[in-house]
Amino acid sequence: MSEQEWLKEIFEQGKKDQKVSEKQIKIIEAAVEIFSEKGYAAASTSEIAKKAGVAEGTIFRHYRTKKDLLYSIITPTLLKIVFPVVAKTFIKQVLVKHEDLSFDEIIRKMLFNRYNFVKNNTPLLKIILQEIAFHDEMKMQFQEAFMDHAYNKLIEVVEYYQAKGEIIDIPTKSVIRMVVTTIFGFLIMRFIIVPESEWNDEEEIELTIQFIMNGLSKK
Fold this sequence. Notes:
- The chain has 219 residues and is mainly α.
- It folds into two domains: 3-66, Homeodomain-like (Arc Repressor Mutant, subunit A, Orthogonal Bundle); 67-216, Tetracycline Repressor, domain 2.
- 77% of the residues lie in helices and 0% in strands.
- It contains ten helices and no strands.
- The longest helix has 30 residues, at 66-95.
- Residues 21-81 form the HTH tetR-type domain.
- It holds the Pfam family TetR_N.
- Residues 44-63 bind DNA.
- The chain crosses the membrane at residues 174-193.
- Keywords: DNA-binding, Membrane, Repressor, Transmembrane, Transmembrane helix.
């Protein structure tokens, strides 16, 4: 799938009832690149227009403000994460039928699932990380997405493995926090902070799993 086709797909996830023109796709494609490189505040609509090969006025015919343009990218991406990825793909591939797996196998599936997602969506993740601290509505969407679609299932999974005696009996929310922050810390380092380092991804993934399990396994 080309980047333009991928952008059109995520745009349509959030706006299935709205026609998306080729010019809009070009504008969004350019905005993703410039927002991820410079950040929202430093990017200008004139730069985006030039990159997209359209007049600046064309942007404002489709998006009233630069913020509207940002949210035309972020909102469908959130919907892509929440519905097809978290609610369907993530839970189905990682958490459903967890009884057949050990806890370290669950962690491995979770890590590979999120690794592939971030690898395929790095520019958008960079935009989200840059902007989420400054846009309360974006932060609220993420909190609601996590609480509504993943948190309860994660609680169920953690409590199952605690009852089996595979992991230590500490507060469930603490287990979830430790696992999530360790996995996303690795992914942010790998794809956002120092992507140019010489990464051995398979080795780093296994070391991350060992680190989590050493902290959570019953001795």
